[in-house]
Amino acid sequence: MTDVQDVRRMDAQDTLAPFRDRFALPEGVIYLDGNSLGALPRATAARVADTVTSEWGRGLIGSWNDADWIGAPQRIGGKIAGLLGAEPHEIVVADSTSVNLFKLLHAAIGARPGRTVILTEPGNFPTDLYVAQGVAAMIPGASVRTVAREDIVAAIDDHVAVVMLTHVHYKTGAMFDMPAMTRAAQAEGALMLWDLSHSAGAVPIDLNAAGADLAIGCGYKYLNGGPGAPAFLYVADRHQAELRSPLTGWMGHAAPFDFGDDYAAGAGVNRFLCGTPPVIGMAALEVGVDLMLEADRTALFAKSRALCDLFVDLVESQCAGLGLTLASPRDARVRGSHVSFAHDHGYPVMQALIARGVVGDFRAPDILRFGFTPLYVGYEDVWRAVEVLRDVLASESWDAPEFHARSAVT
């Protein structure tokens, strides 16, 4: 059985351990919620301050050129491409994940005349379903079809324009086989669109090797770009000339500073830009992406699997009989970098954990969700977190009235 000396030895041998000091984590907190909001890199505050006081304060409007504000969507997108197995010209940073999803879903249906169905699974991340429903409501005859994940391949027919799936499920962490599902969609003439929000920086991704068509993802989870960080979108090179964005803003124009009255789509993936890039948010995101690029990704993903496996093993051995049921895949090969357990009193249990300095989150109706970000979570953190979890459950301290009051964000 693993003991505390074992986990300390694991931390001592961890080549990624020095990255922990690159993050401004509060003293005494075990932060297991990087799958929802990444921790603050220490360099971010100074970078944002420089953007505000130097580039904006002194450089003023000249910083669009001198500090290359105008090139941030392509520059940072190119860096993210290096994390995801894409070419630099296939990814741009823009807008939010939801807005990018809207743009790509609408474009995908337009690129498949005669096909009107967006195929997805029930229980997908809610905003993905809501955006898909909104797109379908705008296009005559379009609809959203949901089928259980085990039935998706069989449901792809000549009515399906695009298959929209989240690569790593937000609640359970279950991970699709990206190459296999992509091939299945394409074999029936549909486009494949992946939501990488719980994948980018968390699990190995090679979009081009998988033959992916389209993808979107956020910058504020494992990329540590800060709350509401700009998102990114990917369009495979082979589709860029045919796809049309429904949001024809000036930054997607072929010549935005010619100020012509009529829209002409920009070249390549640039046509999926829309409004002015949020420069301050871009600056924060770039710090997080640069930090991720420094890490050895083979070591990163191996540690992710090891942390999650250790957590599952310890919870099931130390918290047996205390009401927890594993809700994530046990096999690390089909699981992301977070682990979920179901508990009948999941919300107050999580609030009690947070009060004790172990920060995860809750997802209705009964899921305790724990994220393991290898750059700043260590093996002893896992050990300590399970000790606190066992005590909270065994003592039933979670049943205090203050832990039952629901906050707006869970």
Automatic annotation (TrEMBL):
The organism's place on the tree of life at top rank: Bacteria
GO biological process: anthranilate metabolic process; L-kynurenine catabolic process; L-tryptophan catabolic process to kynurenine; NAD+ biosynthetic process; quinolinate biosynthetic process
Catalytic activity: 3-hydroxy-L-kynurenine + H2O = 3-hydroxyanthranilate + L-alanine + H(+); L-kynurenine + H2O = anthranilate + L-alanine + H(+)
GO-annotated molecular function: kynureninase activity; pyridoxal phosphate binding
Gene3D superfamilies for the chain: Aspartate Aminotransferase, domain 1 (3.90.1150.10), Type I PLP-dependent aspartate aminotransferase-like (Major domain) (3.40.640.10)
EC assignment: 3.7.1.3
Cofactor dependency: pyridoxal 5'-phosphate
Pfam families xref list: DegT_DnrJ_EryC1, KYNU_C
UniProt keyword list: Hydrolase, Pyridine nucleotide biosynthesis, Pyridoxal phosphate
SUPFAM superfamilies in the record: PLP-dependent transferases
Positions that bind pyridoxal 5'-phosphate: T97, S98, F125, P126, T127, D128, T166, D195, H198, Y220, W250, T276
Membrane in keyword set: no
GO CC field: cytoplasm
N6-(pyridoxal phosphate)lysine: residues carrying this PTM: K221
Pathway this chain belongs to: Cofactor biosynthesis; NAD(+) biosynthesis; quinolinate from L-kynurenine: step 2/3; Amino-acid degradation; L-kynurenine degradation; L-alanine and anthranilate from L-kynurenine: step 1/1
Family per similarity comment: Belongs to the DegT/DnrJ/EryC1 family. Belongs to the kynureninase family.
Function according to Swiss-Prot or TrEMBL: Catalyzes the cleavage of L-kynurenine (L-Kyn) and L-3-hydroxykynurenine (L-3OHKyn) into anthranilic acid (AA) and 3-hydroxyanthranilic acid (3-OHAA), respectively.
Subunit structure: Homodimer.
Protein name per the record: Kynureninase
Record organism: Sphingomonas aliaeris
